[in-house]
Amino acid sequence: MRKSLITTAALAAVGLLALSGCSSRTDATTDPSTAAGFPADSVIGIALPSKTSENWVLAGKLFEDGLKEAGFKGDVQYAGASTTVKDQQDQISAMVTNGAKVIIIGAADGGQLATQAKAAHDAGAIVIAYDRMILNTADVDYYVAYDNFKVGQLQGQALLDGLAANKPEGPYNIELFSGSSDDANSSVFFGGAMDVLQPKIDDGTLVVASGQTDIKQTATAGWKAENAQSRADALLTSTYGTLSLDGVLSPNDTLARAILTSVESQGKPLPVVTGQDSEVESVKSIMAGKQYSTINKDTRVLVAKAIDMAKVLQTGKTPEVNDTKSYDNGVKIVPAYLLPPVIVTKANAAEAYANDPILSPLTK
Question: Is the distance from CB of 19 to CB of 305 less than 8 angstroms?
């Protein structure tokens, strides 16, 4: 999906960009049918996946409040847990029928929404992929997310840093976990992490003792904790009877805690385990010295940027983007606005969450 990496200079520049306003750039265009804008009290559809993590739950509430404050009629929908993709397809179709002018989609399965995206376009709506890319369709206008390849790189580096802190020299025995195969972000996270880890695997510093290094082997269906814990149980039993497990690449906090639960249940020393999303229980775990790291991707900032895009589109202008090269969805390069993720360990947690009213108290 990702054709090129974001340079360090570009990442630094992202942090300096304002979250509001529009760009004079001409490489991202709006649909001609909405070029003149639309009424300020229009319906804005928000299609989110099932509530599998704290950030999705928070996003829904933030969208509801933020769209109301902006004067829009917000239609915020979550897909169900059992028929997630079908639910989301039906919800997006209903938003089109109800005349939504912008539909912001956190895809349950980015590879199965092309029909709904086309229907939205045909009806004159603008489609924004939120956090997860929508694949194999020309009918997605913008992508707003944290730089997910960078997330993976930060996770890979955190794993190396944690291993070195625990034991000065390798080799280190590690295992790799990735997200759900129906989430386009899973391969991006894993690709970023392996960009950092593969050279160390090649030179023998890191040893994946199970031999499971392919993303199909490391995937965690549905991002479900029980699936990660089951795989961790199996790996510990089959591979780590006498070997020590030094570290685990985990793509998010929910899976990180499940992996740690598996290790603890077998009475083994805790390995260095990475994560993502800054979930409350994982921040507590980091402060307690269990989970090693997480990634701070402030949902408040991401939702605010998505709403800002809708506000700019309402005026008939082109919203700001800062990447027009990196995100190829299989049919087109989707203009993107990327925010910079931040790695968080016990050492910098207080600083990273200083402005977060929920997480800051946990770091005291």
Answer: yes
